[in-house]
Specification:
By secondary structure, this protein is of the alpha+beta class. The protein folds into two domains: about 5-35 and about 145-220, Winged helix-like DNA-binding domain superfamily/Winged helix DNA-binding domain (Arc Repressor Mutant, subunit A), CATH 1.10.10; about 60-135, Orthogonal Bundle (Arc Repressor Mutant, subunit A). Helix content is about 45%, strand content about 10%. It contains eight helices and seven strands, in the order ααβαααββββαααββ. It has helices spanning about 5-20, 25-30, 65-75, 85-95, 100-110, 145-165, 170-180, 190-200, and strands spanning about 55-60, 115-120, 120-125, 130-135, 135-140, 205, 215. The strands form three sheets. Strands 1-5-4 form a three-stranded antiparallel sheet. Strands 2-3 form a two-stranded antiparallel ribbon. It has a two-stranded antiparallel ribbon with strand order 6-7. A hairpin with a 2-residue loop joins strand 4 and strand 5. Residues about 35-40 have low confidence and may be disordered.
Length: about 220
């Protein structure tokens, strides 16, 4: 068993005992488990929305797919929205939204019975299948997100693990760490390898010397 996995298991046991005693978790344990500190957030882990439920994932608005953002905007509205108004709201949240991509997702979401399109505008059919917007992030159960969104979430958890392990982690240690955190995204060695290559291409991670360990780059620590 790797040191990272053993440490995570110990943190989970401490968490269980504190919950039984109905006592607040120490901040260090909250950070290790990817939870919230006294201010509701930790370094790299956002504040949970009031609507949060176990099993939910989070993705920064800037990293979400057009369809996911469109659903979140429509859910936030609570009523049918004209597409130009929905696009305007999405653009306020993410200035990089491309109008063409946003318009195109409407047809696909209608075919998937996620939204209803009428002269009144676009409207979410089942609010449970649309994510929540909260403080710069989109939240919801993993199954309602696009695969690209779920992948982005896993990569953010990897960054969190490396931030908590300044000495670096090998690929399998990252895999075990994600499993110990109950990562809701698919977790496998090959997937994590691709994740690390992607993060390295963005200069977010790098190798530790000539070892097989990965660590965050200085600017991401």
């Amino acid at each position: 068993m790797s040191a990272a996995t053993e440490l995570m298991k110990q943190a989970q046991e401490v968490s269980r005992l504190f919950k039984l005693a109905k006592m607040p978790l120490p901040p260090a344990i909250e950070r290790m488990l990817g939870g919230s500190g006294p201010d509701g957030a930790t370094h790299g882990i956002p504040t949970k929305p009031p609507s949060w439920q176990p099993g939910w994932i989070w993705v920064p608005i800037a990293a979400t797919t057009p369809g996911t953002l469109a659903l979140a905007v429509l859910k936030e509205s609570g009523v049918a929205m004209q597409v130009k108004d929905a696009l305007q709201r999405a653009s306020e949240l993410n200035s990089k939204v491309v109008s063409g991509s946003f318009y195109n997702v409407g047809r696909r979401m209608e075919e998937s019975k996620l939204i209803r399109r009428s002269k009144e505008g676009w409207e979410v059919i089942d609010r449970k299948k649309a994510p929540d917007l909260y403080e710069g992030y989109v939240w919801g159960p993993a199954e309602i997100f696009a695969q690209q969104d779920v992948t982005a979430h896993r990569r953010l958890l990897i960054e969190h693990l490396l931030r908590e392990s300044p000495g670096g982690l090998m690929t399998m240690q990252i895999v075990r760490g994600l499993e110990a955190m109950n990562c809701m995204a698919p977790v496998a060695k090959d997937l994590v390898k691709v994740d690390m290559e992607h993060l390295a291409s963005l200069r977010k991670v790098k190798r530790v010397g000539n070892t097989r360990k990965w660590r965050l780059t200085e600017e991401d620590n």
